[in-house]
Design goal:
two-stranded antiparallel ribbon; mainly alpha; 9 helices; Four Helix Bundle (Hemerythrin (Met), subunit A); 2 strands
């Protein structure tokens, strides 16, 4: 009986991820009926909560030595809900509305692309894990939770700084930014395993406490939250582009020599 309870812990944490994703969609849909920015903020925070569950389930699986293919597949299915469908639906509320016609259809296309890229990213990660071709220290492509965090941070930041002019900027960046992170998810750009590095510090409560403190600090600063996710996404892209330029220059120098 004790073993069953231990195995249930990571499973319930993983399912908590999907529950947060569904709740995020529910709050974002409420914004359609009652346009109040607080619903977008709550929807964004629920995606952040899904990220917390996604981190904790992996930690619990390693702690109780219950990691396996069932957990990995369940994790991907829940991630598709919380980091694929939920951010895509939230994105539809952040960008231009139905009254903008062509712009809204463009946004709908980006939201669809975002969800498809998330699913492709998760499938590729699963294949790399099974074949052992992935890196233990770096992701290939922007991780889907980080991409979802970019969209969620925009919703939270928009609720904190509401205004007609600012809203127009948010609508434009929601479309362009989501298009960028969607492509980054299926790209070859490498990103470090941040949460794994934090939680690998042993089975003590220190890593968990530090993570909680950081999240509490960020909760009071919507701008810092946006900076965290967008900085992670864009710095990885910048590093990749800089490395390509260096390699090209070395190749040209070698040919001239």
């Amino acid at each position: 009986m004790a073993v069953r309870k231990i195995v249930l812990v990571p499973t319930l944490l993983t399912l908590g991820n999907a529950v947060c994703g569904l709740a995020s969609v529910a709050y974002a849909s409420r914004y359609v009926r009652e346009p109040n920015e607080i619903y977008l903020a709550v929807s964004g925070w629920l995606i952040i909560a899904a990220m917390a569950f996604d981190t904790l389930d992996g930690f619990a699986a390693r702690l109780f030595k219950s990691a396996g293919r069932f957990g990995a597949e369940l994790d991907s299915l829940c991630d598709a809900v919380s980091f694929g469908a939920a951010p895509a639906f939230l994105l539809l509320q952040l960008g231009p509305g139905w009254e903008h016609g062509l712009l809204h259809r463009l946004l709908a296309g980006v939201a669809t692309l975002y969800m498809m890229c998330t699913i492709l990213r998760l499938a590729r990660y699963n294949v790399e894990s099974i074949e052992g071709t992935g890196s233990a220290k770096r992701f290939r492509g922007l991780p889907s939770p980080a991409a979802a965090g970019c969209v969620a941070a925009l919703a939270i930041l928009r609720a904190a700084h509401n205004g007609e002019t600012i809203r127009a900027y948010f609508e434009a960046w929601a479309t362009l930014g989501a298009f960028l992170v969607a492509l980054l998810m299926v790209s070859r750009v490498s990103y470090p395993h941040l949460t794994k590095g934090i939680l690998r510090g042993g089975r003590t409560a220190v890593p968990m406490i530090l993570t909680a403190v950081v999240l509490l600090i960020l909760a009071g600063f919507a701008g810092a939250l946006a900076l965290l996710f967008w900085g992670y996404a864009l710095l990885g892209l910048g590093r990749y582009m800089a490395a390509k330029v260096v390699r090209r220059d070395k190749s040209l120098a070698g040919r001239r020599g």
